[in-house]
């Protein structure tokens, strides 16, 4: 009971605990707002729905008459010189450069992941759920990706190819 009246720096400890917490909150709130605003595209030029199936993707250009096509990996017998083995597909997704694009991604059977690393895109395709990602490509070219989820046998044979044209 000899030290019950010791409270020399209690006010100071309270201040240096609460003050940094207030500063962090003041920094975090505007940052979260900016982060949210950079992810939203209010008026995209294209909206493409990507549906993951076992070993292939289905794409729907929803803004242009419901153009629908499947994208399968090219078998080795159909590869031409310069094609990439296990990465090229029979139908590429063709998009213009500098156009804001909204990708809506889902799956029909199991978990997939729509991934294009060179564009910094990775979104999970979950059955019964519609996920969304947005991007605006700045350089023309052919961008390759694959399903990066362990979604069954031959899961890595679900290539994604985006052809961006000027």
From TrEMBL:
Domain (Cytochrome oxidase subunit II transmembrane region profile) ranges: 1-42
SUPFAM superfamilies, per database record: Cupredoxins, Cytochrome c oxidase subunit II-like, transmembrane region
Reaction it catalyzes: 4 Fe(II)-[cytochrome c] + O2 + 8 H(+)(in) = 4 Fe(III)-[cytochrome c] + 2 H2O + 4 H(+)(out)
One GO molecular-function entry: cytochrome-c oxidase activity
GO biological process, alphabetically ordered: ATP synthesis coupled electron transport
Required co-factors: Cu cation
Note on cofactor: Binds a copper A center.
UniProt-listed Pfam families: COX2, COX2_TM
Keyword Repeat attributed: no
GO cellular component term of the entry, any: mitochondrial inner membrane
Primary location recorded for the protein, binned into one broad class: mitochondrion
Subcellular compartments: Mitochondrion inner membrane
Domain named Cytochrome oxidase subunit II copper A binding: residues: 43-166
Bilayer-spanning residue ranges: 15-36
Cross-referenced InterPro entries: CcO_II (IPR045187), CcO_II-like_C (IPR002429), CcO_II_C (IPR034210), Copper_CuA (IPR001505), Cupredoxin (IPR008972), Cyt_c_oxidase_su2 (IPR014222), Cyt_c_oxidase_su2_TM_dom (IPR011759), Cyt_c_oxidase_su2_TM_sf (IPR036257)
Keywords, alphabetical: Copper, Electron transport, Magnesium, Membrane, Metal-binding, Mitochondrion, Mitochondrion inner membrane, Respiratory chain, Translocase, Transmembrane, Transmembrane helix, Transport
Membrane topology: Multi-pass membrane protein
Family recorded in the similarity comment: Belongs to the cytochrome c oxidase subunit 2 family.
Function: Component of the cytochrome c oxidase, the last enzyme in the mitochondrial electron transport chain which drives oxidative phosphorylation. The respiratory chain contains 3 multisubunit complexes succinate dehydrogenase (complex II, CII), ubiquinol-cytochrome c oxidoreductase (cytochrome b-c1 complex, complex III, CIII) and cytochrome c oxidase (complex IV, CIV), that cooperate to transfer electrons derived from NADH and succinate to molecular oxygen, creating an electrochemical gradient over the inner membrane that drives transmembrane transport and the ATP synthase.
Protein name: Cytochrome c oxidase subunit 2
Phylogenetic classification of the source organism: Eukaryota, Metazoa, Chordata, Craniata, Vertebrata
Protein encoded by which gene: COII
